[in-house]
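Anyone up for a design puzzle?
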């Protein structure tokens, strides 16, 4: 029987099928952080049990961490307690822990691939919705709730219904200054934030084959924003070259054995999906969001759509525009902005900083813009310095902060003030997501860079 990539990975991890219910799925890798793990660990303590396979669990601090002066004690009491709890719980259960100051510390979905924890054909979970990032390697990866975190810690299994299967194919060549972030925002704008609900998405076609691994991670990261359970891309030579010789990947004979399996991880030619969607890569432009969900996005040179042209929820649509202080029919080009945020598990990797630097090189940051440039890990931070990017950024008037989730979700000190506009390379633009009353415009590193030096929404193609 022909199978999709999703079928092959899922079916090989089913421990038990429950008639009329979910599957019991074995989990290869469990990532934990300080926000969703304390209650789960408390549940283990109350039941008098320990983590079943601590060597399959990896802990890092990222959500609540400051991005300046990380060598000093964390000021916020709640954040400090959560960080301390993760450290103590990891030590007690024998889990690898990469806290503040550790050379491997960084955003959970950045450090996982960096150290080879993320591998093709694996099942990966984390108490964080953007766990879908790891699907870029041909893995099944998805976010879980706190009670499920406890379930995986104690049994290394999880109960999950098998999702339906969707394939999104994009062929053709992307135009200048169109990035993987634009591809993802385009798909979400076409499907809406609920268009892939109940599905696991496989991305296929020329556009994804040509993408770097970091670009694929960005696309899979945003799968959750169209309602999907996760997204994945079949592993290929780029995947294998990326993970080879990383700390936690197989070595020597084990590598050869793994490669025999990994090379089978592709959808069979006559496999059937529950839904097929196709786009032309040439139709995608640099994107910008204008509303309060990731689906409210347009090509940067276009006008905000009219409410009457929306499929439904006109009042909700108007409420969103009111929150953003935008009017239907307006152009986004030329609108003044206040903050620029480069970072997060969506766009906090070295390639993102390279792209940002291409635009700002030889130019100066606009005086009205506050820019927070936050690497996703210490490895990214080190590369920024070694490649000479930091010198260029400093010359252009920017400063580099320390690794962490930062302004993505306002769980730390990096909050966008009330009423201010932020061009953000993160993943969500919900009301107050980046701080109470903040107004978020999701965009690529190139669009963020163009806004940072002009002080307004600018088409990066005019500067590229």
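Challenge accepted. My sequence:
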């Amino acid at each position: 029987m022909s199978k999709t990539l999703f079928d092959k990975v899922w079916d090989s991890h089913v421990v038990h099928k429950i008639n009329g219910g979910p599957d019991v799925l074995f989990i290869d890798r469990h990532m934990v952080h300080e926000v969703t793990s304390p209650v789960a660990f408390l549940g283990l303590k109350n039941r008098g049990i320990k983590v079943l396979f601590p060597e399959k669990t990896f802990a890092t601090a990222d959500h609540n961490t400051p991005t300046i002066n990380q060598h000093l004690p964390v000021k916020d009491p709640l954040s400090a307690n959560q960080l301390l709890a993760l450290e103590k719980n990891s030590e007690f259960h024998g889990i690898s822990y990469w806290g503040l100051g550790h050379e491997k510390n960084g955003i959970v979905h950045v450090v996982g691939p960096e150290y080879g924890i993320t591998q093709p054909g694996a099942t990966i979970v984390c108490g964080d919705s953007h766990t879908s990032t790891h699907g870029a390697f041909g893995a099944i990866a998805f976010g879980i709730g706190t009670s499920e975190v406890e379930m995986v810690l104690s049994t290394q299994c999880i109960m999950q219904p098998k999702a339906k299967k969707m394939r999104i194919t994009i062929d053709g060549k992307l135009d200048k200054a169109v990035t993987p972030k634009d591809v993802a925002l385009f798909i979400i704008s076409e499907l809406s934030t609920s268009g892939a609900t109940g599905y696991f998405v496989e991305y296929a076609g020329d556009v994804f084959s040509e993408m770097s691994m970091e670009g694929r991670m960005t696309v899979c990261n945003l799968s959750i924003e169209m309602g999907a359970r996760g997204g994945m891309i079949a592993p290929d030579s780029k995947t294998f070259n990326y993970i080879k010789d990383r700390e936690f990947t197989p070595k020597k004979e084990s590598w050869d054995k793994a490669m025999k399996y990994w090379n089978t991880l592709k959808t069979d030619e006559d496999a059937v999906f529950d839904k097929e969607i196709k786009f032309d890569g040439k139709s995608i432009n640099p994107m910008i969001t204008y509303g309060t969900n990731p689906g409210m996005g347009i090509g940067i040179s276009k006008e905000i759509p009219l409410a009457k042209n929306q499929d439904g929820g006109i009042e909700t649509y108007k409420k969103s525009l009111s929150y953003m202080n935008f009017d239907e029919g307006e152009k986004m080009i030329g609108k003044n902005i206040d903050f620029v945020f480069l970072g997060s598990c969506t766009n906090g990797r070295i390639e993102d900083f390279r792209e940002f630097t291409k635009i700002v090189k030889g130019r100066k940051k606009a005086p009205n813009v506050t820019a927070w440039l936050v690497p996703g890990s210490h490895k990214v931070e080190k590369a920024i310095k070694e490649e000479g990017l930091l010198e260029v950024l400093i010359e252009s008037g920017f400063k580099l902060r320390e690794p962490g989730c930062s302004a993505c979700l306002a769980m730390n000190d990096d909050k966008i003030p009330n009423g201010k506009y932020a061009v953000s390379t993160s993943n969500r633009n919900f009301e107050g997501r980046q701080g109470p009353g903040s107004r978020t415009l999701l965009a690529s590193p190139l669009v963020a860079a163009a806004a940072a030096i002009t002080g307004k929404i600018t088409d990066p193609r005019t500067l590229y």
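A detail worth pointing out: The first helix runs from residue 5 to 11.
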